[in-house]
Amino acid sequence: MKGNILIGQSGGPTSVINSSLAGIIDEALESENILSIYGMNYGIEGFMEEKLINLGKQKQVVLKGLKTTPSSALGSSRYKLQEEDLPKILDLIKKYDIRYFFLIGGNDTMDTIYRVEKYCKNQDYDLKGIGIPKTVDNDLFGTDHTPGFPSAARYNMLSVAQSGVLARDMQKVDKFVIYQTIGRDAGWLAAATALAKKKESDAPHLIYCPERPFNKEEFIFDAKKCIDKYGWVSIVVSEGILYPDGTPVSAAEEKDSFNNREFGAMGGASVGLNVHKILKEATEYRGEFQITESLNMCAIDRAVPEDLEEAYLCGKAAVNLALSGESGYMITIERVSEDPYRAEFGKTKLSNVAIRSKEMPDDFINGRGNFVTDNFITYMKPLIGNIPNYIELDTTLMEKSL
Questions:
Q1: Among 85, 108, 111, 137, which one carries the catalytic annotation?
Q2: What is the pLDDT of residues 20-57, one digit of tens each?
Q3: Of 61, 99, 148, 369, which residue has the fewest beta carbons closer than 10 angstroms?
């Protein structure tokens, strides 16, 4: 089927999302069935305003550079598609002779492409719609992991490792450090910081994920125990952690158009501050807090090379799937070997992914709910890249007083 391609990027970016875009463009340029390649400027929202970028006519230096450029080159959007938008979208799809439709994004994005593809099919318009996974949160069903997650996980792991060295050496001034990660419904990113630990005393000591209720009394007890043992404590909290009654520890109440609780723009930073306040009041110790917010979504300097490559290959796989006549699927990454790590690319129905969040499995979090298990470490090790070693002086070599 000859026709044009339409590509969009939605939701929060990643450091590798443009690598997926590059994969789509490179594969499409090789096909005689693809006439023009259009990119939506600012997602489906921009498409309805007919803001289209001709990607097929970009200079080679631009197309080559996409693979290692962070954030969303097309411009992103969090617009929730309304039923009344669908007829207009179909009219524009017909106007620009769009036959192949690709969206790169998370579960909300998969809902958008699912609804557009389904509507076109019901209106007897032949459109091949394929989703390409993207989210640093790693909360999409059907795939071993999402492109962008390994690099964001590495960003957080390195941040906690380095801030742990700082906190260890500054323990006479600050007895604790709180590090906050993004992660609305799932704690994958917070959990990934566990890879920073080489020995028992290394950061992090405590990790709290949304999959387990945050028990204030247990937290204070565990934090004090670490301080007594190591002289300090490193604590990682996911922005979406909840008290046992379901109240957000962040106290965030605002919600976005997809009914997701807003943490970043609407004061989500308060989860780190609130946990800091809890421990300070309980111990009267000074402490640090570190909130990187969306920086791990765009840190190309910490990107994992294998993550960039998998993102690129997801884009190529999406084009091949569409050209083979398939539609209504999201590309998936399927782990086929652990050591050495090897993955293949498959597919899952968009309806399995749209507006759903994949939490961490129970056996990835310990019984106390304050750290990860060996099963999680095994899952993460092949994804995160090399882990640096930081030295520690031998403090037993003290000079005796004269």
A1: 137
A2: 999 999 999 999 999 999 999 999 999 999 999 999 99
A3: 61
